[in-house]
Amino acid sequence: MGESYEALFETKQAKGRLAYKLFAYSMLVGICSIWLYRATHAPGWGEGRWAWMGIFAAELWFGFYWIITQSVRWNPIYRFTHPEKLSQRDETELPNVDIFVCTADPITEPPILVISTVLSVMAYNYPPEKLNVYLSDDAGSILTFYALWEASRFAKHWLPFCKRYNVEPRSPATYFSKLCDPRNASIPAKWSSMKNLYEEMADRIDSVVRLGKIPEELKANKGFSEWSSGMTSRNHPPIVQILIDGRDQCSIDSDGNALPTLAYMAREKRPQHHHNFKAGAMNALIRASSEISNSPIILNLDCDMYSNNSESIRHALCFFLDEEKGQGIGFVQYPQVFHNITKNDLYGNSFNVFTEVEFPGFDNWGGPPYAGTGCFHRREILCGRKYSKDYKEDWKRGIDRRTAESACILEERAKSLITCTYEHTTQWGQEIGLKYDCPVEDVITGLLIQCRGWKSVYISPPRRAFLGVPSTTLAQSLVQWKRWSEGNFQIFLSKYCPFIVGRGKIKLGLQMAYCVYGLWAPSSLPTLYYLVIPSLCLLKGISLFPKITSPWFLSFAYVTIGKHVYGLVESLQCGDTLAGWWNLQRMWILRRTTSFLYGTTATILELLRISKMGFAITAKVSDGDASKRYEKDVLEFGSSSSMFVIIGAVAMLNLFCLVGGLQRLVVDGGIMSLEPLFIQILLCGLVVAIHLPIYEALFIRKDKGSLPFSVTFLSVGSAMLVSLLTML
Fold first, then answer.
1. Strand 297-302 relative to strand 97-103: parallel, antiparallel, unpaired?
2. How far apart are CA 355 and CA 458, in angstroms?
3. Where, in this chain's numbering, is Mn(2+) bound (predicted)?
4. Which of 7, 332, 579, 717 could lock 376 by a disulfide, CB 3.0 to 4.6 Å apart?
5. For 606-621, what is each residue's pLDDT tens digit?
């Protein structure tokens, strides 16, 4: 290297860390003061003693969890790449890249959405002969294959159009939906022609999906003959089809330039064999691609996460190809960002604090977790390789591909690697590939990679690399968070707990950072206790907090105000609105009382061998009326989910306790009797205020997105019963 070395990326520390650390120390003093108050002011054995002890336990948990969260805020770092320096290198020396796109259900993940993602990554600003795009279809649907076949033909026109006019984003669905007229007035004719081509293709795909079958004349074409009657999403043979063979000199676009390789894969599925969900699909892709392209770099994406930045590969390669600091980097993680977030982020889907604060905080300790999408890996680390200073990556792997072998031979070889029985008696899913038996296979896989000595890096360029489709109903959001909390809690309780598996392998700060998410689920219990018991004690007239005139009141006031004011400032700095921050507070309460509670319960039941792990696919579409309500920032319920009963019961219980408690205090003791219960009145009032949209859904709204009568009946009935029992 010597004097010729030029860094391809740089790292900068976050500003204002000294001020933050002083604030954090003051918060710790306040938390300890609250603990001291609880320990020294416990009431005697009698009414309120057990409630006091429970509150003390909840506050011990909240304080402990707050300490854990400081690991991701203590010293965040930010990465900046220099792709212009990479562009100065000989492009023939750049590594090949395999891109994996995963889909599992043509109903919840419409094929037109899937191929828009595929087309966006095929159009990267990168030598096309070095790109290989694979679509894993876990449903083995001929409808998805048909859509990909259509995309392979459309790509011949779309890719040169994107590169000639520097189109961004390169998802045709997004590009044409955002533009009514072309930006460049000199290309109106070409723009209109391309839009017509896309719309004609989209209409053909949508028509086939509606009918549920492909045109008869296509069944004789290569690839379509793989499907036969009797095949289902859970019972089908392995299918591998190379729709565009990048090695073939005849595979060119309309401008005569090379096209990326494009392949379809559906691993074999049989009812008697467990398929290990997305982790199994990813491992099958790793093996199948090793026969066809075997590139040293792998990017994996969810089918709804289209490429929004055509330079993303080059940004990622700045880390891997840096001669001085790139040796130990195992994977590069981009943020998971969504494109149709409402102005005030109704369901807290923006993840702004995650992407701008917490992941950079991870990066300071050794790297962010693997988020399951938008991640570039070295192929070798996914195959179980441990880090060694002596290891030298073969960046030319896959460049000299098997030109003598036909696509048909490669397809047959790849099929033999994705059968149901291939992994039997192997280390796939354990030491090799993505880890099995965990709902968050991505997180545990990334943790194990870091424990093998590799580092990861986090990058969030000004132009977002990938944009996805968020949950647009409350049920979708809560189910997704239930899976995340359950999976992370399972990791925490297993032998793969960061404090156990990471001991001596990764820094203590990184172990703590993983536990921020690992302890989401058990946070449900103290949160639920804090939402219910102080309110019931208010109804009973039992004080659980110091009076306003007590010096101890200052500790509670400082910690509460300090935490929420800092959270508000942090959220606003990350791009949220004030109303968006308030919505996020509501969503954290709803997640903790439902998603995290269910995640805790599911984890315990699985540990006791009472139930088995499942995997729910989040729907990527919603009906028109629901979409309109989402755009207006109106919560979408519309079903009789047991989660909604809990939400409604907590909301109604606090309303009953606030009204009943205030009425009883004023009638029996006058205004002065409110002082010992001021904090409880304030707490109960805030809970009622944050649940205002719940009351609207219970009693006021009449649209299909409101809460059904059965939920209203159960919520009101259970809240009223608990309140009456407390009064006795």
1. parallel
2. 9
3. 278, 302
4. 332
5. 998 887 766 555 655 5
Which residue in 266, 282, 285, 262 sits closest to 106, CA to CA?
Answer: 266
Residue type, 631: E
The answer to whether the CB of 419 falls within 8 A of the CB of 426 is: no
Report the alpha-carbon distance of residue 282 to residue 287 in Å, rounded: 9
Please answer whether residues 183 and 175 qualify as being in contact, where contact means their C-beta atoms are separated by less than 8 angstroms. Answer: no
Q: Please choose, from the candidates 331, 421, 432, the residue with its C-alpha nearest in 3D space to the C-alpha of residue 372.
A: 331
Q: Decide if 393 contacts 378 (C-beta within 8 A).
A: yes
* Binding site feature residues for Mn(2+): 278, 302
Q: Are 715 and 651 in contact (CB under 8 A)?
A: yes
Q: pTM value?
A: 0.94
Q: Which long-range CB contacts under 8 A does 408-416 form with residues at least 24 apart?
A: 410/242, 410/291, 410/292, 411/240, 411/241, 411/242, 412/240, 413/291, 414/240, 414/265, 414/287, 414/288, 414/289, 414/291, 414/292, 415/238, 415/239, 415/240, 416/238
Q: Which residues are annotated as a binding site for UDP-alpha-D-glucose?
A: 109, 138
What is the spatial distance between Cα 171 and Cα 174, in angstroms, rounded to a whole number? 5
What three-state secondary structure class fits 467?
Answer: strand
Binding positions are 109, 138, 278, 302
CA dihedral 286, 289, 293, 295 (to 10 degrees): -20
Strands 261-266 and 131-137: parallel
Sign for the CA dihedral angle at 350, 352, 353, 359 comes to positive
d(CA 528, CA 246): 56
CB-count burial class (<10 Å; 0-12, 13-18, 19+) for 340: middle
* Conformation bin of residue 391: beta by default, left when phi > 0, alpha when psi is -120 to 50: beta
